[in-house]
Amino acid sequence: DAGVIQSPRHEVTEMGQEVTLRCKPISGHDYLFWYRQTMMRGLELLIYFNNNVPIDDSGMPEDRFSAKMPNASFSTLKIQPSEPRDSAVYFCASSFTEADTQYFGPGTRLTVL
Amino acid sequence: RKEVEQDPGPFNVPEGATVAFNCTYSNSASQSFFWYRQDCRKEPKLLMSVYSSGNEDGRFTAQLNRASQYISLLIRDSKLSDSATYLCVVGHNDMRFGAGTRLTVKP
Fold first, then answer.
1. CB atoms within 10 A of CB A75
2. Fewer Cβ atoms within 10 Å of its own Cβ: the N or the C terminal residue of chain A?
């Protein structure tokens, strides 16, 4: 298996622009998680899905952030409009069950200027 | 109080040393416990699960103390390649990551 795939690996954009991050989970995993990691706040859970349905989005910072999972093999995290404080590494992870081992993608390093 | 707390370190130890990390959690109903390792500019990866009876994997030993609500990770005979950030993970209905403890092993 190729593992969790994320794209792009790096994204540099200007404040106010829309940013879309993409994730392909491991085939057969029913859970997909989006995290954000910064030096100041560590690894934060933003949202997670079970069988393509959002279960908990309480970690989504504000309305500028949205996430979708149109099918079992694809998810997006969108930021519109982006702000400099959104600069972070965004990880996608997947797992068989809610409390099972999570496998992380390589992350997207986002820089908002 | 944070749900999962770790000493951020950094821990700077010489090669061959034994080092131990602790992690406390607040939800007494937690059922799943893990240690993850994260190298600089890489994603977190599972190091080992933590079982109630404690478990060992080579130089690494993990223990769980439910009464005091903490888990620990012991690394014996540390190697340069052990330098990384170690994340404690505790799960109930979902998984909560600690902020991580940074370890640097020096020659």
1. 26
2. N
What pLDDT tens digit does each residue of chain A (113 aa) get?
689 999 999 999 999 999 999 999 999 999 999 999 998 888 999 999 999 999 999 999 889 999 999 999 999 999 999 999 999 999 999 999 887 899 999 999 999 99
What residues of chain B lie within 8 A of the CB of A101, using their CB? 34, 46, 49
Contacts of B87 (CB under 8 A, 6+ apart): A43, B6, B35, B36, B37, B38, B44, B97, B98, B99, B100
Residue found under tokens 């560590």: A42
Please give the structure tokens belonging to residue B99.
């902020």
Whether A43 sits inside 8 A of B32 (CB atoms) is: no
